[in-house]
Specification:
heterodimer; A: about 350 residues; Rossmann fold; six-stranded mixed beta sheet; five-stranded antiparallel beta sheet; B: about 280 residues; globular; cell membrane (chain B); membrane (chain B); Maltose/maltodextrin transport system permease protein MalG (chain B); transmembrane helix (chain B)
């Protein structure tokens, strides 16, 4: 596997503001990488730096092995799909698609042929003569994608491309983008604030916060072994429950404080008396017969979606439980739940790092 | 009061206001067609009994209006070209870069707009005379008008540029264009309407400009129509029909341009000329 994009020790300052802090990231050729994080985490800045729309302050940025620090966007041979699609309003779909080719001096007939080929694969053939304002949101999205594809660039950069679409279309386009990526054997970097998009589409997810890469890895790796409390809370929906806890005197149990103290067994040895935070995923809390569980929890709010029931407890530290068995539960009931020791995530109470 | 009645009342008020506003224009047109005695008749007539069409030909010939209008056209066109070429670049920079210096620049530009022409003419006249520019009086007036109207143009066109999303330019950069190429391919075509409208407004202003032309251009051969109209006036002026005929010939082309382009001008001023 060759590295298509390599960042080492990249920093970006806006005046005194430190937007990207020591970013190290290497992206394999043909992989689909998602940059995910809350707004203001630097993921868009990172993407724009790859495109050359922002310059990096220090560090090295290589695309296909070439140092690109001071190379203008037009010489980087990358394509970008913008959040607003950024279609040229005064050009038809065909002109939008062929713009990059025309700048490079590709012959008219050849550019037209390329546009027709790409349009055929993205289902735009009948729209080539239209202007962007005459298209629906999904069609504009496809034009933006096609405009990137037509150039066979070294990498595709996506800047939250689905956030302007409605929910159903978003799920559909998610699959379409991934299919396209696989068919073109392209290298893609995809920025999103939606962890579900990142998890479902990417081979490699990079979680960022405040300009720092908190963790990167395969989607399930992040879900199964979050490196810290932030990643644990960010990945997974509904979000992980965090409850304060203390390691028992034997070092193999955990006293959990959800309103009332309850003890759960541990599958590993920890320092007795250590203050920690226990992370319990809502989907890992299972209903058990009364008296069999490790938690007895009073029910506060019940939300049903049909496929799953979200139960929020009325304890001092709120806990969410997801149930897919359609067990009848109402507010005010007391439920008995259990969790496998292996499913308990433990984080240091102060640093938030995985223990 | 029902909805329909209120709408009717509003319409009535609008018509009355429009009538008051347009009355001088109407009066100009009909006075130009009146005979010498009818002009001073009491009560005044609101429609000339015998329209005197020959007044136009007489004024055109006797005042040499062809030459005046030609000078006005040269001065207005020159000012528009100068302002457009310089102002578009200036407006673009002010729209795209934001920092303290740009804010100061913008403030100074707006300051310039505040100063009246009659105040500015003295220093301009002295300066031009030192530079020997009074030997080229029409060029001198073009430059003076350009300096005077540039802020107005820059502020309008800057708003137009700001309405062109930055992402479009970035898309063009990533697509392989240079900054300059992106400006000419993407930004300029999208801002075209706003620039055109601002240029037309500048043209109309410059076509009627008086203070600079009157002060700088001494030679009758080179004076624009606004100065020519003024030379009609005197303490004992009574040939109002001739003056109004002159005014009619002077403003009708401008009015026609405005009416023809009015929809574009209004939309160009309010929207950002995008879509």
């Amino acid at each position: 596997m060759t590295k298509q994009i390599e960042l080492s020790g990249v920093n970006k300052y806006y005046g005194a503001y430190h937007a990207l802090k020591n970013i190290d990231l290497s992206i394999e050729k043909g992989s689909f990488v998602a940059l995910v994080g809350p707004s203001g985490c630097g993921k868009s800045t990172l993407l724009r730096s790859l495109a050359g729309l922002e310059s990096i302050s220090t560090g090295d940025l290589k695309i296909a092995g070439e140092l690109m620090n001071n190379v203008p966007p037009r010489k980087r041979d990358i394509a970008m799909v913008f959040q607003s699609y950024a279609l040229y309003p005064h050009m038809t779909v065909e002109q939008n698609l062929t713009y990059s080719l025309r700048i490079r001096g590709v012959a008219k007939a050849e550019a037209k042929k390329a546009a027709e080929e790409v349009a055929a694969t993205t289902g735009l053939s009948h729209l080539l003569g239209r202007y962007p304002r005459e298209l629906s949101g999904g069609q504009r999205q496809r034009v933006a994608m096609s405009r990137a594809i037509i150039r066979h660039p070294k990498a595709f950069l996506f800047d939250e491309p689905l956030s302007n679409l409605d929910a159903a279309l978003r799920v559909h386009m998610r699959k379409e983008i991934r299919t396209l990526h696989d068919r073109l054997h392209a290298t893609s970097v995809y920025v999103t604030h939606d962890q579900i998009e990142a998890m479902t589409m990417a081979d490699h997810v990079v979680v960022m916060k405040d300009g720092v890469i908190e963790q990167q890895g395969a989607p399930l790796e992040l879900y199964d072994r979050p490196a810290n409390k932030f990643v644990a809370g960010f990945i997974g929906s509904p979000a992980m429950n965090f409850v304060p806890a203390t390691v028992g005197e034997d070092g193999r149990s955990l006293a959990v404080d959800i309103g009332e103290k309850q003890t759960i067994p541990l599958d590993r040895q920890l320092q007795p008396g250590r203050k920690v935070t226990a992370g319990l995923r809502p989907e890992h809390l299972h209903f058990v017969e009364p008296g069999q569980g490790v938690f007895r929890l009073p029910v506060g709010i019940v939300e049903t979606t049909g496929s799953a029931t979200y139960i929020t407890t009325s304890t001092a530290t709120e806990v969410t439980v997801v149930d897919t068995t359609r067990r009848p539960v109402g507010a005010g009931d007391v439920i008995d739940v259990s969790i496998r020791p292996a499913d308990v995530h433990i984080f240091d109470a102060e640093t938030g790092l995985r223990v | 009061m029902t909805e329909t009645n209120r709408n009717r009342l509003m319409l009535l008020i609008a018509i009355v206001m429009a009538a008051i506003y347009l009355f001088p224009l109407y009066w100009m047109y009909i006075t130009a067609l009146k005979s010498g005695s009818e002009m001073f008749a009491t009560p005044p007539t609101f429609w000339p009994s015998v329209p005197q069409w020959s007044t136009y030909a007489f004024v055109w010939e006797s005042r040499g209006m062809g030459r005046y209008l030609w000078n006005s056209l040269i001065i207005a066109s020159g000012a528009v070209v100068l302002i457009t070429v310089l102002g578009v670049g200036c407006a673009y920079v002010l729209a795209r870069y934001r920092n303290g210096w740009v804010d100061i620049g913008l403030f100074l530009i707006l300051m310039l707009q505040v100063l009246p022409a009659s105040l500015m003419i003295t220093p301009i006249f002295v300066g031009f005379s030192q530079l020997g520019m009074l030997d080229y009086p029409r060029l001198a007036v073009i430059i003076a008008i350009a300096a005077k109207s540039m802020p107005f143009f820059v502020v309008l066109v800057r708003a137009t540029f700001m309405a062109v999303p930055m992402e479009l330019e970035e898309a063009a950069l990533v697509d392989g264009n240079s900054r300059v190429g992106a400006f000419f391919h993407i930004v300029l075509p999208l801002a075209r309407n706003g620039i055109l409208v601002s240029a037309i407004l500048i043209f109309m202003q410059a076509f009627g400009e008086f203070v600079y032309s009157k002060s700088i251009i001494q030679d009758i051969e080179l004076q624009p129509a606004s100065v020519g109209l003024n030379s009609f006036m005197g303490p004992n002026t009574n040939e109002w029909n001739n003056i109004m005929a002159y005014a009619t010939i002077y403003v009708t082309p401008i009015l026609a341009i405005f009416v023809l382009l009015q929809r574009r001008i209004v939309s160009g001023l309010t929207s950002g000329a995008i879509k």
